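From the pipeline queue, job 12 of 40. The input is one protein chain; the requested action is below.

Action: predict structure.
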Amino acid sequence: MEYHRESIIEIISKIERLFEAAILASNKAAAKPFLSEIRSLEVSLNLTPYLRIVFNEFLAYAENASGQVKEKEHWKAAAEQSLFKLTSDLDNRS
């Protein structure tokens, strides 16, 4: 069980780094590879249906915050809130 928890922590850390890279990207096209990699990590988390919804919500907000956009801070905060919900629920599962 401890191994599973460490694995989740590593995946979430990677998602956080990729998210930061996506929102710092100069445009949506430059952010796309980071967002695609985040999407590919979803499978590794073995999410419940509810957590898949939260994950997709996070990804949508992250996409909205990526590149040069209006209301960047709003979308970034929304993505961070969804990521917090996701990580909180994952912590409770492990």
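Job complete. The chain is about 85% helix and 0% strand.
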